[in-house]
Amino acid sequence: RGYVPPESWDRGIDAFYTSYNLSQYRSYDSNNNSNTASYGRFNSGLNLFSWQLHSDASYSKPDDMKGTWQSNTLYLERGWSQILSTVQIGENYTSSLIFDSLRFSGIRLFRDMQMLPDSMQSFTPLVQGVAQSIALITVSQNGYIIYQKEVPPGPFTIADLQLSGSGSDLDVSIKEADGSVRSFLVPYSSVPNMLQPGVSNFDFIAGRSKIYGVKNQEDFLEANYIYGLNNLLTLYGGTILSDN
């Protein structure tokens, strides 16, 4: 549900785009002397041959001073559908998956969760059970039916739920062919970084810090990994390696 296989993806057209925000402030003192400050921010990009170039830059000019350009991010990006990931090369920010975000220049490889089915992009519990006959499975949350499906006899697993809320347990009923009904409860609560059982997320970075105002920048390696173990546990860990 909510999934398009990679072989059906379209990389889009070759194009250049830009968006901008321009502002100017002018004030006057008691002698009617004016003071003007100008500012502009530009988000631009170029899509070409399955690569995307992204730029976030700004221009500022205080009154009677030379204007200055400042680049916030500038990087190349390309999707890697074989491993459901994206690679980025250039100046960007690390994710805040586990550690604080850091501006850097280098290369980054991370799991692109948008390449997964909608139901796997965030935590949803697996609903598992056993049907004694051809049965109708109904899953409700807050009294609202969010899933219903007929299953054959034997074990079943429902992994593509679209939940209606973030903190209510799931009521599951199994209606057998003879009309008998069995019900059970699946506990559900979600905290940041929780993943559906069997789903993993990772983020690997190699580069050099580029923190504004810091004289001595450092080379570093960062690795983050998260894995949904079951409906109750998500394992995660990370490390940052640097000389200082």
Automatic annotation (TrEMBL):
Record's subcellular location: Cell outer membrane
Pfam families to which the protein is assigned, alphabetical: Usher
Molecular-function GO term, any one: fimbrial usher porin activity
Membrane topology: Multi-pass membrane protein
Cellular-component GO terms for this entry: cell outer membrane
PROSITE patterns membership: FIMBRIAL_USHER
Keywords of this entry: Cell outer membrane, Fimbrium biogenesis, Membrane, Signal, Transmembrane, Transport
Keyword Transmembrane set for record: yes
InterPro entries named among the record's database cross-references: Fimb_usher, Fimbrial_membr_usher_CS
GO terms, biological process: pilus assembly
Family, as annotated: Belongs to the fimbrial export usher family.
Record-given protein name: Fimbrial usher protein
Species this chain originates from: Escherichia coli DORA_A_5_14_21
